[in-house]
Amino acid sequence: MQESKIVAANNPRSAGIRKLVLVGILAAMGIILHFVESLLPAIAPVPGAKLGLANIITLMALVVLGIKGGGQVLFLRIFLGSLMAGTFLTLPFYLSLSGGVMAFLGMSTGLYLGRDRFSLVGVSILGALSHNLGQLGAVAIIIGNLGVFYYLPYLALLAIPTGFVVGMGAKYSLNALPQTGRIK
Amino acid sequence: MKSLLERWKDIRTGDKVIVGLVLILALAGVLYPLLWEWLGGDPGDLQVVINPVGAERQKISLGDIPEEGKGLIVPGPIGDHLVLIYPEGVRVIAPEDDPLKICEKTGWIRRPGATIVCVPNQLAIWLEGRDETGLDGISE
């Protein structure tokens, strides 16, 4: 995986503060991307399929901040996002939590246990697949019926192009980060 | 800006393995229901199972449905679903209060295993082989 480090200007304490700020900024960007995506029309022929733009942020956070920081960004995004959308502790919240946590686990596995076997595109395809599994699993529990897994092959096929777009988005965003002079 | 083809050069072995596995498994899963139809599967031999969470399952054989179809109202926590059953398939109309109406957008189901799920209204509807015939395409 790509190594990255937060640059602390002169004071070692400021590195921690910069990290905290970065977690906040990434969580905010994730919430915005999630809202932007909800405005896009669903073009996929499979019910419930979507692009997963917010996963760009989760992936970037995992690379820049590691598992702990990435997890902070993920939970902040899901909790604050659902509070802002008014869906906290309702169905969309549980679906985005189950999908988000599973995608996070899938991508962490690809990044940290995959030992450079996956590019960011591969990692984000793993994320999309585990997101599908998490969400279908949550729906199966709520409905008490495994029938929804009928859609898994269709969703898995769509995970390839959406994973590609998300992986590329994360890659180009990460490539641009050193230009800020804050992260290298 | 590199071309799309050049970007694929950054792709590693693990990526190819995962894409290959997904393609093989997912295509098999997608093609199987299509094959069922090519092999002479007939929706008339199927039954639709309507399963609201915590309520009695209803099974209706598609072969018994008249040409002009049959509508069925299934109540749930957020309203009434209208289930439209025709000899060649099933679809639903979601209640007004369904925020995403994913079940309605699912459209027609026509093959065994195909499922319509409405999460907010806690309803699952799917097609399966008829219990009572005991026959399938091969034994005929």
Compact description:
The complex is a heterodimer of chains A (184) and B (140). Chain A has 184 residues and is mainly alpha-helical. Chain A has 5 helices and no strands.
Report what the structure shows.
- The complex is a heterodimer of chains A (184) and B (140).
- Chain A has a single domain, classed as Orthogonal Bundle (Arp2/3 complex 21 kDa subunit ARPC3), CATH 1.10.1760.
- Chain A is mainly alpha-helical and 184 residues long.
- Chain A has helices spanning 12-39, 54-85, 91-113, 120-143, 152-176.
- Chain A is globular and about 55 Å long.
- With 140 residues, chain B is an alpha+beta fold.
- Chain B has 3 helices and 7 strands, in the order ααβββββαββ.
- In chain B, the strands form 2 sheets. Chain B has a 4-stranded antiparallel beta sheet. In chain B, strands 3-4-5 form a 3-stranded antiparallel beta sheet.
- In chain B, strand 6 and strand 7 form a beta hairpin.
- Chain B starts with a helix and ends in an 11-residue tail after the last strand.
- The model of chain B is unreliable at 133-140 (pLDDT under 50).
